[in-house]
Amino acid sequence: MGPRRAALRCATAAQHETLESIFGPIETLSDYGRYLLFLTAFRSEVETKLHQMFRFHPVPYLPLQDALAADCRDLGLAIPSPCGILDLSDHEDEYLGALYVLEGSRLGAAVIREKAHRLQLSGDFGARHLDILTDGCSWPNFLSYLETATSMDEEALIAGARKTFSFALEVASGAIHVEHC
Q1: In this structure, are residues 25 and 31 in contact, taking their beta carbons and an 8 Å threshold?
Q2: φ, ψ dihedrals at 30, nearest 5°
Q3: Taking the mean position of all CA atoms in its chain, how far away is CA 49?
Q4: Into how many domains does the chain fold?
Q5: What SS3 state is found at 95?
Q6: Cα 144 from Cα 167, distance rounded (Å)
Q7: Which domain range does residue 136 map to?
Q8: What residues contact 168, with CB distance under 8 A and at least 6 apart?
Q9: 8 Å CB contact between 5 and 146
Q10: Least confident interval from 28-32, 59-63, 75-79, 165-169
Q11: Is residue 23 over pLDDT 50?
Q12: How many CA atoms lie within 13 A of 64 on its CB side?
């Protein structure tokens, strides 16, 4: 693990643990629905911010909003509106910190994808976004850029990641109760 990734991981470990504990294991369609509604509301705001900064950046990200919306529709869930505002400065490295959070979620997506498959969900129904997240190529490319970029403000990078996790916790703490599943 490179030094920047290690610093980001250490700086956000407590927030990451807290976020995972809010949702607990995904064992039922209701559990999965809560996770899906959270992720849809969270990523709506974060992806909007990233799109503004990274349309022509060497580290592209893959938006999930269309897949998340289709997954919500499959499960009969109303697509949530963005909840709150992710407050990033105009510093590009804060946006890279936010992108670290989104790209890092690919690792947990593989676990959730297996659970979704046990719930009879797939890349064609209810779990499209998980197929996209687990494609495997974007995370290594992001890490390579993260570790080899010569000019990076690591304090801003960490601040962006922490702000993004704080925003995720804010969205999750107002977690939507799913009755449709």
Answers
A1: yes
A2: -65, -45
A3: 13
A4: 1
A5: helix
A6: 26
A7: 3-10+27-171
A8: 15, 19, 42, 101
A9: yes
A10: 59-63
A11: yes
A12: 29
Is the residue at 16 inside a domain? no
Comparing CA positions, the residue from 84, 108, 62, 110 lying closest to residue 163 is: 84
Give domain status of residue 167, yes or no. yes
Q: What is the pLDDT of residue 177?
A: 41
- Determine the Cα–Cα distance for residues 59 and 57; give it in Å rounded to an integer: 5
Residues 6+ positions from 156 with CB-CB distance below 8 Å: 89, 91, 93, 94, 97
Phi and psi at 124, nearest 5°, equal -105, -15
In a domain, 181, yes or no: no
- Specify whether the CB–CB gap between 175 and 34 falls below 8 A: yes
Residue 20, domain member (yes or no): no
Structure tokens at 129: 């976004």
Q: What is the CATH number of the domain that holds 70?
A: 1.20.910.10
User: Cα(160)–Cα(139) distance, rounded to whole angstroms?
Assistant: 18
Query: In terms of residues, how long is the chain?
Result: 181
